[in-house]
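Notebook entry, structure prediction.
Reason for the run: the old model in the group folder had no record of what sequence produced it. Starting over properly, with the input documented here first.
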Amino acid sequence: IIRSLVFADQSDPKTTNREDEFIFGSALLVSPVLRAGQKSKQVYLPQGKWQDFWTGKVYEGGQSVRTRVSNYRIPIFVKAGSIIPMHPVRQHTSEPEPEILKLKIYLAGEAASHFYWDQGEGYDYLDKGYRLCTWHTSQKKKSYRIEQKIKGKFKSACKQYKLELLGMEEE
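New structure, fully documented this time:
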């Protein structure tokens, strides 16, 4: 689901009338590059903590930040605490699924993230032939917790997760 930035924080007047940024799903803020040759871009981050998708750097929301851009790297920010599954490119649903799913975990906050899987064709999903993974994250001073809940009966080829932790604070 793609939503206007105002839906991230309707009480913040700076989120209205922003036509070159949007929320993708529940966790990603995307700001496409609209001018050829552009080297940097000003992006407004709504309230809360946000992390640069590319670097993991943590930003406090409610402010604009300048970020580097290129033809291959547009500004993407992740709501802190979110988990983003990184699935390899598949051209069609009959290609084999990966056995290992990479999870990019953006520390520094609490969030719920969801990942839906099914066969990709047919109607099995109507009879719980799907797999919905829900991850809840929470952080205390020196610890981080991830809880997973699974619904559905779909058996995925994925048997392992590879975790990439981003935004860990250094002491």
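Summary: The longest strand covers residues 130-140.
The old model has been moved to the deprecated folder.
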